[in-house]
């Protein structure tokens, strides 16, 4: 384009001037052309790097998401006392035996134990899932306080997280406690015949003499607080991305196969033929596993309070419950 432009100027000058003018202009034009060639020679074009085609692999190395760097999955099972907690504990133990040693099980019998003592196996590199069990007692802080910043950090870093809360109708909890702790039906942690054993027996007899209705009225405030504390604790767990399953004693008894299947999924137990046989074995026994020295006779019938308490007592118990429990428990 530059050569054409200079040539047009040159022709115009030739036709409008004399020979002397032509000579001067010719020198100027030739010098300009030489200078232009020299400049163009030294200007190197920008190298052209072709874009990779859609099918061409990029040479940029991408770090893959490494599962080994993720913390193990965490499952927290919190069972209300007198809500089938022993049954859940034994069932989890049987299902954990099917976990091919990739599940690390930590048992905290009482929720006032030090949570830092749980899960010593968490440092085991083979643990793909950490399962924590806690029996929730009345008037005792939760063993797993999901409002705690250190526990929240563990939940966020875990590959997955689920919290299972095992509950029961609050009035049935009171009735079951009366049947267990006012008679010799429940295990006494002292040698028979010792002064400590006899003291427990006398205390239970005195409580039993009050009657089940008065016992339930005295008991219900503690059960109510238990519902409030643990339901609010679930909110903190859910805020950290944990899934929440509120498991009900009534469904566990009425639909054992569905309960066992759901629990197996939470524990990430493979549905193998061995698993199927174990499920059917537990269903056939109605989850009534072989008793040990700590076992007691289980009154498994949901709605037992309707047969055990007077109607006026049930009405009074309902009025003693908080609005929170009435609205959130799902029983009223």
Describe the structure.
By secondary structure, the protein is an alpha/beta fold. The protein is 50% helix and 11% strand. It is built from 13 helices and five strands. Strands 2-3-1-4-5 form a five-stranded parallel beta sheet, sandwiched between helices. Helix 1 runs antiparallel to helix 2, helix 5 crosses helix 7 and helix 9 crosses helix 10. The N and C termini lie far apart (90 Å). About 14% of the residues have low confidence.
Characteristic key phrases:
332 residues; 5-stranded parallel beta sheet; alpha/beta
Number of strands: 5
Total count of helical runs of at least 4 residues: 13
What class do helices, strands and sheet pairing give? Answer: alpha/beta
Main sheet specs: 5 strands, parallel
Please mark out the parts with pLDDT under 50 across 5 or more consecutive residues, or reply none: 46-69, 108-125, 289-293
- Portion of residues within helices: 40-55%
What gyration radius follows from the Cα positions, in whole Å?
A: 39 Å
Distance between the termini: 90 Å
Strand order, sheet with most strands: 2-3-1-4-5
* Overall spatial form: elongated
Mean pLDDT, to the nearest integer, reads 77
Tell me the strand percentage band: 5-15%
User: What is the helix/strand order?
Assistant: HHEHEEHEHHHEHHHHHH
């Amino acid at each position: 384009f530059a050569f054409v432009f200079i040539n047009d100027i040159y022709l115009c000058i030739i036709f409008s001037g004399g020979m002397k003018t032509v000579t001067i202009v010719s020198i100027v034009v030739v010098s300009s052309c030489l200078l232009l060639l020299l400049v163009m020679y030294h200007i190197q074009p920008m190298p052209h790097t072709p874009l990779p085609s859609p099918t061409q692999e990029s040479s940029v190395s991408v770090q893959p998401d490494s599962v080994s760097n993720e913390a193990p999955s965490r499952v927290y099972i919190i069972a209300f006392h007198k809500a089938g907690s022993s049954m859940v504990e034994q069932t989890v133990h049987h299902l954990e035996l099917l976990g091919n040693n990739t599940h690390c099980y930590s048992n905290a019998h009482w929720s006032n134990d030090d949570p830092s003592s749980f899960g010593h196996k968490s440092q085991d590199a083979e643990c793909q899932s950490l399962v924590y069990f806690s029996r929730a007692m009345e008037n005792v802080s939760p063993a797993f306080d999901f409002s705690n910043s250190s526990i929240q950090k563990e939940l966020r870093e875990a590959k997955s997280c689920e919290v299972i809360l095992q509950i029961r109708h609050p009035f049935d909890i009171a009735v079951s406690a009366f049947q267990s702790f006012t008679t010799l039906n429940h295990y006494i942690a002292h040698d028979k015949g010792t002064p400590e054993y006899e003291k427990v027996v006398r205390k239970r007899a005195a409580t039993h003499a009050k009657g089940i209705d008065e016992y339930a009225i005295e008991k219900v405030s503690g059960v109510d607080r238990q519902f409030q504390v643990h339901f609010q604790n679930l909110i903190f767990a859910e805020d950290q991305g944990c899934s929440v399953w509120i498991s009900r004693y009534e469904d566990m008894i009425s639909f054992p196969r569905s309960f066992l299947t759901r629990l197996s999924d939470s524990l990430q137990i493979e549905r193998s033929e061995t698993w199927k046989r174990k499920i059917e074995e537990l269903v056939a026994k109605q989850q009534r596993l072989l008793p040990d020295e700590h076992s007691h006779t289980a009154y498994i019938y949901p709605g037992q309070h309707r047969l055990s308490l007077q109607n006026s007592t049930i009405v009074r118990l309902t009025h003693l419950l908080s609005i929170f429990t009435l609205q959130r428990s799902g029983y009223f």
